[in-house]
Amino acid sequence: MNETLFSQIQRLFERTYAQVGVNLEDCLIDRQRCAQLSILAGRSARELSELARTFLRRTGDRLYVGIYYSRWLIEQLERHDPRAGLSDRNIRSLIMFVEEIDHALHAALQFKNGAREIGSEDFSRNLELQAQVDTYLVLLLFVAFFRKTQRVSKTDRRWLRFHLFARNCPGAFHDANLRGRYLETTELAATYTRYLDTLNGMRRLDEIRRFRSLDYASKKAQILALPSRTLP
């Protein structure tokens, strides 16, 4: 049986970090359920993308996860499957697809490790920063796979960084908290991934595993302390 793109990405993240213990595809929800959860999430949630979202809810010692993808986004990935090549036609859709899987996986891992304040701003910023870092690394793998040398050029990296970081418009959010969250995490992720680009494969793997284990304040402090040569 052929693996889905979703299951392949989840498996990649679990090999990199840790087993989450559930099939996250079972957490997929439809448009109606997404609308219901969006109302419960409050006014600021209305500004988030309608193409892909992850919902988290805690009840005692249980974490409930809902992952939503719009029909349009899924159709784009089916029409332009990134496993057949990455291009301007599918990179934005793949970014959104990967980020939601990453949000769900790291929320579950943090919850398993004792984190319970899933509604806190630091928790949200931690998930967003981690997702942008991980998505960049996934995009690098997709690009490298289709290069005969298995190497990613500077031009490739600039193209990836444009779509993942430069093309984001955090300033467009009306909600000050969302605006601050996405401005900060995008800047931090852009800086940290430039640092990761200077490391070889094994050092990079060790580094991202260690980085994942940090809380948001520690991640931010580490990135801000990086040498100026790694800054965007």
Overview features:
single chain, 232 residues, mainly alpha, 3-stranded mixed beta sheet, globular
Termini distance? 43 Å
How many helices does DSSP assign? 9
Low-confidence stretches: none
Please trace the helix and strand order, writing H or E for each element: HEHEEHHHHHHH
Overall pLDDT confidence: 92
Radius of gyration: 17 Å
Helix content: 55-70%
Provide the number of structural domains: 1
Strand content: 5-15%
Describe the largest sheet: 3 strands, mixed
Shape: globular
Strand order of the largest sheet: 1-3-2
Class of secondary structure makeup: mainly alpha
Instruction: Kindly state the number of beta strands.
Output: 3
Question: How would you sum up this structure, described in words?
Answer:
The termini are far apart. The protein has a three-stranded mixed sheet with strand order 1-3-2. It is mainly alpha-helical and 232 residues long. It has one domain. The radius of gyration is 17 Å and the shape is globular.
In short:
This protein is mainly alpha-helical and 232 residues long. The chain has one domain (5-230).
List the SSEs and their pairings:
Blueprint: H1 5-16, E1 28-29, H2 31-41, E2 52-59, E3 62-69, H3 71-79, H4 91-112, H5 121-145, H6 154-166, H7 176-196, H8 201-212, H9 216-224
Parallel strand pairs: 1-3
Antiparallel strand pairs: 2-3
